[in-house]
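Q&A log
Question type: sequence-to-structure
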Amino acid sequence: MFRFQHAVVTKASPELAWELFSNLHRWNNFANIYGRLEWREGAPWQPGSRLDIEILRPVHTVIEHVITSCVPAKRLGWIDHAMGAAMAQWVNFEPHKSGGTRIYTWGDLVHSGVSIEGRSVEQLLTSFTEIWYGNFRRACDSLFLGAAGPDPFAEPCADFL
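Response status: OK
Response body:
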């Protein structure tokens, strides 16, 4: 089993951060790897609901998410299955002492020893998590600051590979 964890701090409130996080249409702005993102069963973000996430690269697959816990703007938990791997992941949105929000994610991955394009699943997951949450933090900060000028979401971010 592989445990991962990562945290970022944004100037945005937990409510604003959750608003952005829960909008699946924005996810390609955090990591440009997604195809179709579709709620297959249940109401979005409700325990027991199922979300299919199509990944286009580095390998084409569909990750099946099952939401296990959700308190909007506070915490979220899910279980994923794809390519012989299973993962439990949690995301917390915590008010930060200096204002804004600390977004902390962690999880446990169990997999079948698969490697993708010469990289271990652990390496890919670590890199992906750092890139995704770093870009998410920047988007939250832009929304908080009311960034003037071009839409900060107009161009998707670079790949994580």
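Response note: Confidence is low (pLDDT under 50) at residues 148-158.
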